[in-house]
Amino acid sequence: MWSLKYIGTLQTGEILSLESCNDIVDDFTMERTLGDEFWVKSSDLNIKHRQTLPWYSIGGPSYWWLGVFWNDELIDAFRLTRAYDKEDEKRTGHYETRLKSIQKSLYDDLNDTVLDVVSDINSWNNNISVAAVRIKKIRYKNNLGNWSGNLNNYGFSLGALLHSINGSEYKGYRIHNWPEYPGPMLNEDHCIILFRGSSIYYYTEAVEFTFTDYGITWMDLFKLAAFAFNCFISVKPIIQDIDGTDYLTTDINLLPRINITLGSTKSPDWTERKKEKNKYQIDGVHLFSAINDEDGDPSFSYEQGDIEGDNVFEKSVDIADPTVILGSSVYNDIFYWCDCIYDEGENKYDILDDEDEPMPYFASGLVEEWYQDMIDTGDGYEGNILFDGEDAGDHLVAGDDVIQASRVQTKKNGISKASGTTIAQ
Question: What is the pTM of this model?
Fold first, then answer.
């Protein structure tokens, strides 16, 4: 059963108010969707209601949200802001409102926050140090083709950086957990190690040089991870009891979209569905650096399938491969990433191979299998289900197939539209 409630929170995400508003909402359509590597998608809620909605209170909650619950479980939370009510054209006394979810709030806040050793009000920068690692030896080629670099300077594990914001709080919610990250994070082989130029030996200066001075935001890091693993980004709000106090929190998952390991499934009640053969099929994949080498070609290029075909999945990222000569004379400013081998004895990371050359991330073969299903078949499903808690990112049984739902649009009457791609079994 559906219920809609106002959720009033403090800056920290602590919930001060939780009140039903079922009596003023006549209808709604909620869309739950997964963000992608370009962060252009987020969930939203369209509601028709008979009273204006709260967006502030004096001496009470700092932030107001509209929570949508199913059988008392929070499905999504939508931020209430000042200018959102729009009376409909028929002048019936109703209002029609479109609200953006906590997923969009998180996206915006990530984009507004630069990594820095000085923590700001959102506290996301408090734990950057846990992701700082010592690189045994950094080497990259200068414009003369000679090797440059340094010893024992700092790099940063991409996975550990993202994981470091657990427990952080900002603008009325709290980061709860990172249940899933597709790759190694710390004290393991094959972590993705980030560094700039030959980096710096001292921690504070290394953070500032690598991130702060160049305006690298937390959103930039999420984009790198989504690019590296071809991921969807799932954001799920949860009301969590922390030491006897309820908080509005978020779970964040990075979900590889191709060759996904089949996990627990749900068997929805489909009222209709259609298999769409080859809907998402592509000829090939081309992932490459937006930073060019001396010949004007991408500093790294990953290819799979037929990249000369008519339908090629292409993405670029502003990070370089340190093994090539770049088309720039300013090498100590270039942002790099590498594969690594962890040396437990020295507690350091080796980014060089047996020939003393850097191991670029995409040359390691770590991403290859995640695109093969899309090249082989690219099948999808779309149809209507009777809603029973299904969500974007869920694995849904559809006859003899299983799909990963990328979008679930639900109405107050309980009819939902679900769509997604088939999962290899």
Answer: 0.87
Residues 27-65 pLDDT 10s? 999 999 877 654 446 678 988 888 877 766 656 788 999
Task: Please name which of 285, 312, 279 lies closest in space to residue 301, comparing C-alpha atoms.
Answer: 285
**Mind listing the pLDDT tens digit for each residue in 223-274?**
888 888 877 788 889 999 999 999 999 988 887 765 555 668 899 999 999 9
Region of residue 365 (left: phi > 0; alpha: psi -120 to 50; beta: else)? left
49 sits in which H/E element: strand 44-49
Q: What does the alpha-carbon distance between residue 184 and residue 177 come to, in Å, rounded to a whole number? A: 16
Q: Are 311 and 279 in contact (CB under 8 A)?
A: no
What are the backbone angles phi and psi of residue 23, rounded to the nearest 5°?
-75, -15
- Both structure tokens of 333: 């400013």
Contact 217, 113 (CB under 8 A): yes
1-39: string of b/e by CB count within 10 Å (b at 16+)?
Answer: ebebbbbbbbbbbbbeeeeebeebbeebbbbbbbbebeb
Query: Whole-number mean pLDDT of the chain?
Result: 85
Q: How far apart are CA 53 and CA 35, in angstroms?
A: 27
pLDDT of residue 192: 93
For residue 213, the 8-state DSSP code is: G
Instruction: For residue 264, give Cα distances in angstroms to 374, 376, 402.
Output: 22, 24, 11
Closest CA to 338 of 147, 136, 148, 35: 136
Q: Are 125 and 216 in contact (CB under 8 A)?
A: no
pLDDT at 360: 83
Token pair for 350: 């080796």
Torsion angles phi and psi, residue 200, rounded to 5: -140, 150
Question: Three-state DSSP class for 32?
Answer: strand
Question: CA-CA distance, 397 to 263, in Å (whole number)?
Answer: 12
